[in-house]
Amino acid sequence: MSDKNFDLKTRQQQILRALNNCADEVSGQELHRTLIKASSNMGLTTVYRHLRALQQKGLVRCRNLPTGEALYSPVNRDHHHLTCVDCGQTLVLKSCPIKNIELSKTQTKNFELLYHTLEFFGLCQNCHQRQKMT
Q: pTM here?
């Protein structure tokens, strides 16, 4: 367990383990169902509260879809996406296009960077074709 994880509360550790075991990013509701199946007696509100705490510690990232749904994943999965604003289809980019960008010390002064997200929004081929026909 890393130093960052050492002082996590037990429920935060459970949530982080469950997220690491998920093949993809998940919603709070999906994560809650996973925890319930694993015999963890944790309410949905508690899951969201601890997800937020983990996000503030830089251990969990949150991605908001155009539908308003939030998806969570561990920050060690540096995934970025192309998302269709019509149907919601999401494609994972193979690599992070901004991985090697460094912000200057003056830009980050008085700010501790925890993680970044990068999202591209547009229309998938099917939605684009459908919209051209209407």
A: 0.78
